[in-house]
UniProtKB/TrEMBL annotation:
Domain Aminotransferase class I/classII large: start-end pairs: 16-346
Keyword Cell membrane among record annotations: no
Name the record gives this protein: Aminotransferase class I/classII large domain-containing protein
Pfam families to which the protein is assigned, alphabetical: Aminotran_1_2
UniProt KW keywords: Pyridoxal phosphate
Cofactor: pyridoxal 5'-phosphate
Species assigned in the record: Treponema denticola H-22
Gene Ontology MF: a single term: pyridoxal phosphate binding
Length: 352
């Protein structure tokens, strides 16, 4: 399984509860349908090729300047464009598979450095291996581990960026799900985002994988360089109409953050309590976002996949993530009802 998210996946006539896809269980903001309906006539004309209004709205949400905004047909398009611009791509593994795949599409060499055993970046190892012209891509939080880079560690990495003459691409697609410890966009504003780009997206937190709207904040020079290789009209009219409807729905944003925090704690506590009591024995790693990495203690990930399918649940096997092996799975934080079903599946005890 290369990616999660198979909504139509069925076991005979039963649709499985999809724990493989890390989408906000509260789905999209309520006002979105009205905004999209009102924008129908925009489908009949070309979008503004410079996306001035969309960049202004996105800049207001991210609290940076419109001149710092980069847009993409999903975050992956932005990642792809960056991979095309640098000599070599450096990754810390395990990580999102598209980083390496996009580099290979552009015939770029890829250097992979494993995370430390606690899934924190090996800063000493990076310092030894990085060289001018490299693009270092880090998930923050990282997929599939669910961990944020600590602020002090991120500042150390950024110091390496400046020292070695490389570029840091921070993939923060899951940022809004995390505790409010720091905001990378605010953190690097004083530096003018020199040699750094912070990517976010509407896909996960706003529950809109079909809209394909990625956005990022970087220096004006980097934004200008990217504009020269971007495809014309790469953002569709519905994505442009969705932005103001989702970015300024403060009630939805607050409720989503609180809900994920509560349900993440519920899952972690109950997996710790019941994870080794059932047929499939699981150990949860710490997580700071809307998914949890689990180690399967007594079987392979494919065995766990079959076990949960019988329980009406689809999980994400993780053998495709380099360095994890064949004994890890990943689950999303879903609705409380669904989360209870997962806990019940691993234990004879009922969760409420």
């Amino acid at each position: 399984m290369e990616h999660g998210g198979v909504l139509s996946y069925k076991k005979k006539d039963e649709v499985l509860i999809d724990f493989s896809s890390n989408i906000n269980p509260l789905m999209a903001p309520k006002g979105l349908k009205k905004a999209l309906s009102a924008s129908f006539n925009n489908l009949l004309v070309y979008p503004d090729i410079r996306y001035r209004s969309l960049k202004k709205v996105t800049a207001q949400y991210l609290k940076c300047g419109p001149e710092n905004i980069v847009l993409g047909n999903g975050a992956v398009e932005i990642i792809d464009n960056f991979c095309s611009m640098f000599k070599r791509v450096v990754l810390c593994t395990p990580c999102f598979s598209e980083y390496g795949l996009r580099a290979l599409v552009h015939n770029k060499p890829v250097l992979e450095l494993p995370y430390l055993p606690d899934f924190l970046p090996d800063i000493a190892g990076l310092e030894k291996k990085l060289r001018a012209g490299d693009l270092l891509i880090l998930g923050n939080p990282n997929n599939p581990t669910g961990l944020r880079i600590e602020k002090t560690a991120l500042l150390q990495i950024y110091s390496l960026v400046q020292k070695t003459g490389i570029f840091l691409l921070l993939d923060e697609a899951f940022y809004e799900f995390c505790p409010p410890d720091y905001d990378s966009i605010a953190l690097f504003k004083k530096d003018g985002y020199k040699n750094i780009c912070i990517i976010r997206a509407a896909t996960k937190f706003f529950g809109l994988p079909g809209i394909r709207l990625g956005y990022a904040c970087t220096s004006t020079d980097t934004a200008a360089a990217l504009s020269k290789i971007e495809m014309a009209w790469h953002i569709n009219a519905f994505a442009e109409a969705a932005a103001p409807a989702i970015f300024f729905d403060e009630d939805f944003i607050a409720k989503s953050k609180a809900y994920i925090q509560k349900e993440r704690v519920f899952l972690l506590e109950n997996i710790e309590k019941y994870g080794t009591s059932g047929e499939i024995k699981l150990q949860a790693y710490k997580s700071q976002c809307n998914f949890i990495l689990l180690k399967v203690l007594n079987a392979k990930d494919t065995d766990a996949l079959k076990f949960f399918e019988k329980k009406g649940i689809l999980i994400r096997t993780c053998s495709s993530f380099k360095t994890l092996g064949d004994n890890h799975i990943r689950i999303a934080v879903r609705s409380h009802k669904d989360n209870c079903k997962f806990i019940n599946a691993i234990s004879s005890k009922r969760s409420k």
